[in-house]
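Re: duplicated header lines in exported structure tokens

Our pipeline writes sequence and tokens for each protein into one text file. With two proteins the header for the second block appears twice in some exports. Here is an export where it did not happen, for reference. First protein block:
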Amino acid sequence: MLYYIEAKAQGLDPLSQETARELDPVKMAKTAVTPLFPDSGILKKIGLLDDPTYHHNNVNLGCIECHGSFVLAEPNGKLQGWPNIGPGRINPDGSLGSCTYCHSGHRFSVEEARKPEACGQCHLGPDHPQHEIYEESKHGNLYATSGESWNWKAPVGEWGPEDIDAPTCATCHMSGFGDIVQTTHNVGERLYWELQSKKSVPQWKGPDEVDLITERIPDPVQAERGRQEMLLVCAQCHSSQWANNYFQEFDKVVEDYNKVWAHTDSLLQDAYNDGLISRDNPIDETPEIMHYLIWHHDGRRWRMGASMMGPDWTHWNGAVDAIMNKLGTMINDLETRRKLKTIDDKLNLLLEANGQ
């Protein structure tokens, strides 16, 4: 995102090989102090971010492994940014993406892509644990206990509820299923909410309408279409009352999170305005770190757990971790800073009164 915005600001094509060589997006990612790379704040504080011998290579084998990056072709045939199979890859010929992350090379198997393990390569861990949430859900339980006997090889467009006993990630988000919904590679097409963002809003307008990196505009009309598409999938196995009631409860969880986030964000902005913390480094002080973790880790688990019927992720790993642990820590830290600032202000007044 940093690279893309900078390229746009300079009037350059952010998808061109020439721009990537000029601006070096990987170096930019490794050296910027930003919550986009949240370890950068502490690395800057301890001096390693500016140390040329520190590689910061978790960016290469962490972020880029899943998100993808440029593959740059050098005149001698050497490829920079390779190997790289992230779905956000920008290829030397200008094409975008990598099919092999979901459909492994040499097989290109629809059977593989229909199983949750394909998605679990990236969609797991503390910040987006969809794979673990799925395992906890009743859907995941059915897959674990009987999935080996399901029909994974049905032709595209012919897969349906007679082939499987419970949905997988692909069933709900991508696959043509039950001759009711069509196959899509837009994984947000059947969703109402943006659950990964700081504040949840209806699905953003897509890249065919706006520049999705620089303009994130909620589209309630498309979001409602997405909800109705998802309900069609649910209806292959569940009654409309079952599905509708669940989504109503889920929407309340999202609204609850948004209220907690609004309070959290206002605390941080007040702390900046009152001089309790510094804006110089956006992610090195406790309130900043808690602010980040509340939305990027715990808040996502809270919302995503509810969306996929994972009660432990909704409650303990989500709401409780966000509110009691992170928000509680943030509040207590700021209260201590305010008390210390009051003492410091009084001490300075005394020193001024004594001519010191």
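Second protein block, exported in the same file:
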Amino acid sequence: MAANVIFMHGTREQFDRIPVKDSNTLYWIEDEKALYRGNDLYGTGREATRSAAGLLSAEDKKRLDELAGGGISTLTAVDGSLEVTGEGYSRGLKVRISGQEHNGLTLEEDGLFAAPPSAGSGLEAVDRALALKLDQEKAGGLSVTEKGLALEPVTAERPGAMTAEDKAFLDAIPVLYEGKKYEVVGLLAGCRADVYGREIRVFFPEDAPFKQPSGEANGRDDKNYYFGVRFFAPDGAVKFKEGEKAADGDFETFDGSSSGTDKYGRHYDVCWFPAARTEDEGHSWTYNGAGSEPGRCAGWYHTIEWYGEDEKPISSETVRVNLTNDGCHNSLKPSLGLENTAETLVWQEMV
């Protein structure tokens, strides 16, 4: 039997507030695009979203059916720690354990198990972790801090790390040769000095920037460029004699113009040797070692005798100081001062 149909429209909220829906009335829900006849849904509305209710899509229906059946067909392992096994509804997850050597993880019936670390030489296990063991009596200043291992500076009571100040102090001490110490001073750019036993070999290049000295102290004049050899005295020495015939010379102390005591408390004496000469007030220079050659070298013998208290002899030494050039510096055989023979090296004395 035909009846009149009433049409109403509004929001879902307005529709839900109607206590009794008329079966002869069509209700259009504007915000959901749904059509109801009374309480019965007749039209298709929007699909459901995470923020609003709506119709269930076919894709969502398929996914819900898979979950209801216990399947996880859409899961994919993203790294090597998990493995997806099986097919369809029978798919599952499995934990993977690396087969790398020393891996302490194992899979037990109740889950993963991490075996405690094992201690080795110099290590101990503390609260499932490895700690470094130190023999405090023999650690030599080594200690374990929050940041790691630390080596404390050396002291007079125990060994340890050398400080930068100590290293600088040691570097400032000349190298020892046969228990004695020699140091060449007054070298110019490009010059070098080598010590072989009782031989001091001094090299000046052809373009050495010779210059006139200021004043005429210590026997030096303004027509020669001088370099010096500092001789460090042995322990206990308080006086010395030097020269070609040192024994016939006068006693000297370490408070002269060319002798003294350095900041490390070492006594020394400096002997000066002319490396080059000028006849035109320094405009041009003649190097005294320019004529040196293998087998024949310009140079000097210098003897120095050291004395202690009451002028008691301590030791004496004779040193050969040579001037070399590009042609012979590296080809000369190391000599032994006055013990040279014709087969090793013959010296051309300079007066």
